[in-house]
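### Sample
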Amino acid sequence: MPATIEAERPTISERRWSRSLPTLTTALDSLPDRLLFAVPKKGRLNQACLDLLSGSDIQFHRHNRLDIALVKNLPLALVFLPAADIPSFVGEGRVDLGITGRDTVAEHDALNPPTETTGCEEIMDLEFGRCKLQVQVPEKGDIQIPEQLIGRNVVTSFTNLSEAYFRDLESKQSQANGNTNGDASQAKLSTNVRFVGGSVEAACALGLADGIVDLVESGETMRAAGLKAIATVVESTAVLIRSKHPSDPKLVNLITNRIRGVITAQKYVLCTYNVERKNLETTSKITPGKRAPTINSLDEDGWVAVQAMVLRKDTAQVMDKLIDAGAQDIMITKLENTRTI
Ligand SMILES: Nc1ncnc2c1ncn2[C@@H]1O[C@H](COP(=O)(O)OP(=O)(O)OP(=O)(O)O)[C@@H](O)[C@H]1O
Ligand SMILES: O=P(O)(O)OC[C@H]1O[C@H](OP(=O)(O)OP(=O)(O)O)[C@H](O)[C@@H]1O
């Protein structure tokens, strides 16, 4: 059950609809008039996605254990799926829109290269869920570079990306050794890449692997397991993706604009201050705004009031610089929502 979105009482037709739902597949088939939007059902991206839907005024009621929710105020249905499966559903056009990690899209594409009609199109970087898929080895071991893992055991949940990564390494090494017999990239992989679904970091200590390929955010899990990173395979954040031919492109645009508005509001704050007109050129360079700062005259001769959007992460530095440039009465206001182009 989503924690931050307070569920409203379902309508009678929604209750009937959910009672009549035997499986997810038949449910999807019975929703021809609704755009389908996949969101991670659990895990690291789940809560941020629910917050994004709430900020975008996408109202829904999710019944306990049910992986589909009808949206009350738009012709949309949410489908709750494991993050790693979302690129397949979107890429094959079964679902129109989705939010997942860029790493999962890359993992899908490594096995199913996009064609003119299949594959996912990235609409927007959502700037949360930032992490790196990295090659890791025991900190105290003898392996220092990924080439030393060639021909050895590697464990991961990202087998397609890992195989592609080691295939590339093997092919480069083979060329460096002067091997020109045939296409090295088609040769059998000598590195043994094996799949595990979770707790990948335990594989080296348990003797299952010489190295792993796993996600790193803070690095705490990696260090706690006595591992160190020696290479990065992919850098990832959460992304909004769409299928190549969504059922309702206009609605896709509307949802995209709403989500972009929420993301912008999270990223920026509104900075207002008063400044003497003679210092305005300097302060405008500090706060150029997204397009240009808004400037209003003050009732006091020679003074103006300025408003501009500032990146939230730069707020303290911008305020320091404004003070040095002669600005006064500086205020920072949180943005609830935005619609900018
Ligand atoms: N430590 C992390 N920090 C930031 N983002 C992460 C982290 N781990 C995973 N992610 C992102 O979240 C996506 C989903 O990963 P997660 O491990 O939450 O999935 P899950 O397997 O569905 O959930 P769970 O691990 O709870 O079973 C990843 O593909 C990645 O994009
Ligand atoms: O660098 P950190 O901040 O420590 O995060 C990295 C960990 O997060 C993910 O696992 P998760 O906790 O989602 O569980 P899992 O091992 O079951 O996938 C990932 O697989 C790492 O183990």
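The pocket of adenosine-5'-triphosphate (ligand 1) is lined by residues 42-45, 82-83, 101, 103-104, 129, 131, 198, 215, 217, 236 (CB under 6 Å). This sample (ATP phosphoribosyltransferase) is used throughout the tutorial notebook.
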